[in-house]
Amino acid sequence: MAASTVADLRSDTLTRPTPGMREAMVSAEVGDDVYGEDPTVALLEEQVAGLLGHEAALFMPTGSMANQVGLALHAGPGQEIVTDHLAHVLRAELGAAAAHSGISARSWVADRGLLDVDTALSIIVPDGGPYQVSTACVVVENTHNFGGGTIQPLADLKALREGTRAVGVGVHLDGARLWNAHVATGVPFADYGACADTVSVCLSKGLGAPVGSVLTGSTEQMARARVLRKRMGGGMRQVGILAAAGRYALEHQLDRLADDHARARRVAQAVGTAYPQVVDPQTVQTNILVLDVSAAGWTAGEFIVAAAGQGVLGYPMDARRARFVWHLDVDDPMSAHATEVLLDLLGRGVDDRG
Ligand SMILES: *Cc1c(COP(=O)(O)O)cnc(C)c1O
């Protein structure tokens, strides 16, 4: 491949709206959504609620706000959420649950971000009385971002749902990439929706919309969510222009997520065959590839800089691991270039680099 090829695999948030999406945005019917008068937003909310089998939905500016409003529907000040130690709500939302809503958190240690139902159910405290913090909600992420695009098995989600319902604890599903889980497994969205009280989904990741997320739940919850969203500064006006991008993405850019998965898997197979200690291709289930570059003598920081020098951009997740994410704006030639560069760098042992 030409030396000028750049594969930007830092994140699937980097996608830019396609010409068809831009046209849909230009021609969107709009109104003031704080007044509840934007018809395109109403259509999107109805569509996403319907997909997940929930009563209602609310359009949100970001996935973080969708998650944080979702958590605040379940838990009040002095209560806790329980989730895994790699969860986006714990690691990538800047302490929002504590800062905005007075919510504390505990976590189980998760291999690749996988839900551990027995541990989750064993550490929740449904009613802590006057001595212990009460658990209001368990949060599950599907697919799991920092876990490496991991899909949560439906059977585990069901078991969590039954176990928490029996003791009156809620479930919030951080489904920023639930689209990818659905496309990879064929599990209907409504089956995932049935395993949670509230679900957040992102339109601005692999689906390719420039902005936007959606929170779903009961009609009563979404009425409260509307208040919380406005209080956090997320009441938006003629936002149908963005909802139109989301509707376009659902219609035209959902199925193609399978292409991202296939490309990520092909690169994982090439790298994992040569360097099995760096990645087990079996663990690459969707559009995220995590390499343990420390197993090849690199720090993640050094590896990311070296790869960027050859036109392959990634993200250092911690000292040992580098993350690469496939999306709408990455094609086969870029993917092939990424394979070449990753194999080349992993092949240069510590000694070769001096
Ligand atoms: C991206 C992401 C979010 C939301 O992120 P925003 O940048 O706030 O839209 C939430 N959860 C997960 C797992 C994510 O990957």
From TrEMBL:
Pfam families per record: Beta_elim_lyase
Molecular function in Gene Ontology: L-allo-threonine aldolase activity
One GO cellular component term noted in the UniProt record for this chain: cytosol
Cofactors (names): pyridoxal 5'-phosphate
NCBIfam families: GntG_guanitoxin (NF041359)
Boundaries of every Aromatic amino acid beta-eliminating lyase/threonine aldolase domain copy: 8-292
GO biological process terms held by the UniProt record: glycine biosynthetic process; L-threonine catabolic process
Modified residues (N6-(pyridoxal phosphate)lysine): 205
PANTHER family with a match to the protein in the record: L-THREONINE ALDOLASE, L-THREONINE ALDOLASE-RELATED
Protein name per its UniProtKB record: Low specificity L-threonine aldolase
Sorted UniProt keywords: Lyase, Pyridoxal phosphate
Assigned protein family: Belongs to the threonine aldolase family.
